[in-house]
Amino acid sequence: MRGMLSHYLTQLILSTVPNSLSSVEGWANTNLSSWFHLDFIGMEYWRWAAIVITIAIGFAVNVIVRFVLRSVLRTLTHADQEDHELIQIIKRVPKPAGSAAGGATWLLMLPLISLSSGVQQIIEPAVHIYITLACIWFGFRGTDLIAWVAEQKANKTNNKLDDLLVPLLRKTLKAIVVVFGVVYLADSMQIQLTPIIAGLGIGGLGFAFAAKDTIENFFGSITVILDKPFEIGDWVVIDGVEGTVISVGMRSTRIRTFYDTVVTIPNSILVTSKCNNYSKRRYRRWKQMVGVGYSTPPEKIASFCEGIRELLRVHPYTRKDYYQVWLNEFAGSSLNILVYVFWTAPDWQTELRERHRFMLDIIRLAGELEVEFAFPTRTLYLRNEENWQQGSNKISAMRPEGWMEDAEGEGREVVENFTSADDWRKHLPPPYTFTGARDGGNGPSGEGGEGGEG
Question: Looking at residue 339, what is its pLDDT?
Answer without folding.
Answer: 95
